[in-house]
Design brief:
By secondary structure, this protein is mainly α. About 55% of the residues lie in helices and about 0% in strands. The chain has one domain: Orthogonal Bundle (Hypothetical protein af1432), CATH 1.10.3210. Helix 2 packs parallel to helix 4 and helix 5 runs antiparallel to helix 6. The N terminus is likely disordered.
Length: about 230
């Protein structure tokens, strides 16, 4: 893979919000931009930016400790399963992981690398599992969790300064992300019983919305660091 070195995230906002700029990263952006709402698209990119902040906090270096192209691919495509053009025949994490892995394989990415991305996406909503499946899974999970501002149990909320957060959100505004993403997950879950098994994220979101009109996550995010 082609690497863009991000050994630690400098204080400058230009470095903080820089994307890889590789052919693969450009292809990923071209894939997700038309099929995700602006809110979900921005969340996906912010998850990558925050994952790099976590990597810096952990002393991890792109190119030696993790592959930056794979980190971007997994972060940017982690919610591809809620895209309206998908088949919607299984829970969104798995559907997104399958679609991302196939996309990477079509572009010549080695099977082992595509499988790492598959795992990172499939496990991103599974705390206690993703953290034990390697560096890529850990960083994607923590980047996604960090973008929720606390309710997903993130351990690295203090790794992002207010100045850094302002720079990221200025470039990729939140646009009522929590509601927008929950809407997309619930819509995908409602299309097939297999998409919403009991005690899974999509299953519980669907049932909470049906019962209460709002999920517990949406309620918790009202008082999170970034808000809803």
């Amino acid at each position: 893979m082609t690497e863009t070195a991000h050994e630690a995230i400098p204080g400058g906002s230009a470095d903080l919000i820089a994307l890889p700029g590789t052919p693969l990263a450009e292809a990923v952006l071209e894939l997700i931009r038309p099929v995700e709402t602006p809110s979900v698209f921005n969340h996906s990119v912010r998850s990558y930016l925050f994952a790099r902040v976590v990597a810096g906090r952990l002393g991890l270096t792109a190119g030696s400790d993790y592959d930056d192209d794979l980190l971007f691919s997994a972060s940017a495509m982690h919610d591809l399963g809620v895209a309206p053009d998908g088949p919607h025949r299984q829970r969104f994490e798995i559907e997104g992981a399958d679609r991302a892995a196939a996309f990477l394989a079509d572009r010549g990415v080695p099977v082992s690398d595509a499988d790492q991305v598959w795992q990172a996406i499939a496990f991103h909503s599974s705390p206690g599992i993703s953290e034990r499946r390697g560096t890529l899974c850990l960083l994607v999970r923590e980047g996604v969790a960090l973008d929720f501002g606390g309710p997903m149990g993130n351990d690295y909320l203090d790794a992002v300064t207010d100045e850094q957060a302002d720079a990221v959100h200025a470039e990729y505004p939140r646009l009522d992300m929590v509601r927008s993403l929950t809407d997309a997950i619930v819509a995908q879950a409602a299309k097939n019983p297999k998409n919403a098994a009991r005690y899974t994220i999509p299953g519980e979101f669907l049932r909470e919305r049906e019962a209460y009109g709002r999920t517990r996550l949406e309620h918790a995010c009202d008082s999170s660091r970034w808000g809803n």
